[in-house]
């Protein structure tokens, strides 16, 4: 059972047997689209909270809170929506499976672990050392067995489900366009001209140009400001699954949190409803588009 927490700190506690991911499927998939939200999970177990030195609200600021709700219209437009239920700070599904910081563990790591990536150096590997504000997550060092259990029981099932959805879609339609859904805090480099959305296609290598162009045109027509690949060009999901030559295209969409939530309190703001409506319109545009040119 989850430990008692202030009502504003965490969502109502889900059952302990909650699976590592949820898939909302349409009655019949009618479009070559898959939507995924790897960072909106908000199930914090009592065991994890006991290990953490931070309060629940501080931990939640690493989430892409409510992003699964923003894109919840996907099944109504004929596309599945995959959502992780586990939090990003617990296990990051948008990293390689074994990006681990050796300084976090109470013993040596296996030689095959990637301990030298820039993400590990920044404290944001598969098991994060810090939260977005730079504060250390844990009270003490972890056993490697703990990281291994999280990766095997959370990361791997999520990616098995994602790979299956992509394969099913490609088999049915000859191609697949994966929309990987995220949110972003205000970025200081953009100063007085922040973007409402940043689209990441790994600088053109993960997705045919038609998809980001259509998203830009649609959002721009609604009055939103978009930027491409700056500062988010796409993480592991975009780069790993985006293989245009094989008919699989991946586009990361980052939504500015200021549009729909109070970041300090991790609460929905009045902008949540109109933004959700606009993103439903975007999903509808993508669902009606002809994606046959994405086939290899």
Description of the molecule:
It contains eight helices and nine strands. Helix 6 crosses helix 8 (272-288). The strands form two sheets. The protein has a seven-stranded mixed β-sheet, with helices on both faces. It has a two-stranded antiparallel sheet with strand order 8-9. It has helices at 46-51, 56-60, 67-70, 118-121, 144-173, 210-221, 236-241, 272-288, and strands at 21-24, 33-37, 81-84, 176-184, 197-200, 226-228, 248-256, 261-262, 267-268. Helices cover 28% and strands 14% of the residues. It is globular and about 55 Å long. The model is unreliable at 1-15 (pLDDT under 50). It is α/β, with parallel strands linked by helices and 296 residues long.
List the helices and strands and how they pair.
Blueprint: E1 21-24, E2 33-37, H1 46-51, H2 56-60, H3 67-70, E3 81-84, H4 118-121, H5 144-173, E4 176-184, E5 197-200, H6 210-221, E6 226-228, H7 236-241, E7 248-256, E8 261-262, E9 267-268, H8 272-288
Parallel strand pairs: 2-3, 2-4, 4-7, 5-6
Antiparallel strand pairs: 1-3, 5-7, 8-9
Helix pairs in contact: 6-8
């Amino acid at each position: 059972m989850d430990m008692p927490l202030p009502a504003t700190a965490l969502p109502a506690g889900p059952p302990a047997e909650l699976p590592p991911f949820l898939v909302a499927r349409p009655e019949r998939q009618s479009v070559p689209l898959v939507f995924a939200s790897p960072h909106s999970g908000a199930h914090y177990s009592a065991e994890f909270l006991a290990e953490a030195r931070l309060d629940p609200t501080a931990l939640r600021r690493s989430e892409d809170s409510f992003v699964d709700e923003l894109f919840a219209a996907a099944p109504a437009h004929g596309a599945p929506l995959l959502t992780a239920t586990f939090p990003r700070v617990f296990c990051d599904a948008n990293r390689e499976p074994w990006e681990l910081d050796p300084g976090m563990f109470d013993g040596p790591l296996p030689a095959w672990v990637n301990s030298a990536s820039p993400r590990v150096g920044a404290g944001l590997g598969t098991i994060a050392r810090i939260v977005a504000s730079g504060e250390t997550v844990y009270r003490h060092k972890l056993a490697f067995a703990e990281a291994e259990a999280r990766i095997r029981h959370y990361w791997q099932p999520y990616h098995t489900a994602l790979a299956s959805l992509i394969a099913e879609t490609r088999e049915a339609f000859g191609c697949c366009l994966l929309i990987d859904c995220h949110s972003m805090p205000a970025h200081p480099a953009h100063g007085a001209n922040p973007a409402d959305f940043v689209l990441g296609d790994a600088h053109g290598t993960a997705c045919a140009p038609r998809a980001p162009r259509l998203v830009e045109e649609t959002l721009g027509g609604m009055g939103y400001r978009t930027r491409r690949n700056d500062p988010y060009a796409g993480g592991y999901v975009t780069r790993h699954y985006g293989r245009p030559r094989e008919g699989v295209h991946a586009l990361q969409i980052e939504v500015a949190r200021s549009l729909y939530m109070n970041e300090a309190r991790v609460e929905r703001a009045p902008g949540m409803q109109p933004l959700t409506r606009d993103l439903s319109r975007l999903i509808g545009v993508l669902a009606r588009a002809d994606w046959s040119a994405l086939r290899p």
